[in-house]
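Its record is quoted verbatim for completeness.
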Amino acid sequence: LDGVIFHPIHNGIDVDAYPRPSPKPDARPPWVGYWSSPDRGLARLLCAWPKVRRAIPDARLRIYYSVRKYLQAAQCSTTMGPTLVMAEVVRELLAALGPRDGVDLVDVLPKRTLQRDQIRCRVMCYPTTTISFTEGFGQAVGEAMAAGCLPIIRATDAFGDLWGDVSWVIR
């Protein structure tokens, strides 16, 4: 392995890809980022979004995931399980909301482009609602912290053990 350069990526997060110091959250646009699978809490966030917009009219919810592919795959499912039900709820909520409501379906981005957007997000909202245990560490939460945006999470799955007694408040 002579001449090979190794670059550790801790828990799948390249913390060196984010600037230090990162911009303060209140210096960023009022963007709320969601960059995980839609079946892990997107429906909760979409339900709460109209209340967020009433409180902060220029807030934008930016969803970084292939939501359309997720919905198509769920529609092709041969069983009426919880995943399909969750997908139908997400589909109905997205049909009621759109760009005029501050909701942007950004889709999947190359990693460096996503990191650039994560640095611009003020908040990363991950109100985890899982059908079964799915989060052991939560890479999306770690990425939010590396980007310097404020993660808002629920203490479900492993998050209760990892982050249960932590809160972030801007004063």
